[in-house]
Design brief:
globular; 6-stranded mixed sheet; 6 strands; about 130 residues; alpha+beta
Length: about 130
């Protein structure tokens, strides 16, 4: 599991800033990776963490790992991020299901999921922007 401390205090206020904060890690990969941005109360990135690496069409997402790290880092909210090597920005049924599952889990521990970003090359899809 790869973890990147945030050297500068980047503040996330919209989906484009999330895209800019994570695209170098996953934008051009030929396999799927799932990352999480952990944010403080002011929406500054505390940490970027690679939760999983998968194949060309999927990866495993474990809510326990995500929320364990959120609690350890005293995160107030998190942003989910993963890539689609296929170039297709449309969320899959599994993407929708895991987003709902993690949002529900976050409510139990008072850690908000503020967005889920899908990246394909130089483009992105934001669950928050699309409702």
């Amino acid at each position: 599991m790869k973890v990147l401390e945030s050297p500068q205090r980047i503040r996330i206020s919209n989906s484009k800033l999330v895209f800019e904060a994570i695209r170098n890690e996953i934008g051009d990969l030929l396999h799927e990776e799932f990352w999480v941005l952990y944010l403080d109360r002011s929406n500054h990135i505390i940490r970027k963490s690679n939760i999983s690496k998968g194949g060309v069409s999927g990866t495993v997402v474990d809510a326990r790992i995500i929320f364990k790290q959120a609690i350890e880092n005293l995160a107030s909210s998190i942003v989910l991020c993963h890539n689609h090597p296929s170039g297709n920005l449309k969320p899959s049924e599994e993407d929708i299901r895991i987003t709902k599952k993690l949002k529900d889990a976050g409510k139990l521990v008072d850690i908000a999921i503020i967005d889920h970003i899908i990246i394909a090359g130089n483009n992105f899809f934001s669950f928050a922007d699309e409702g």
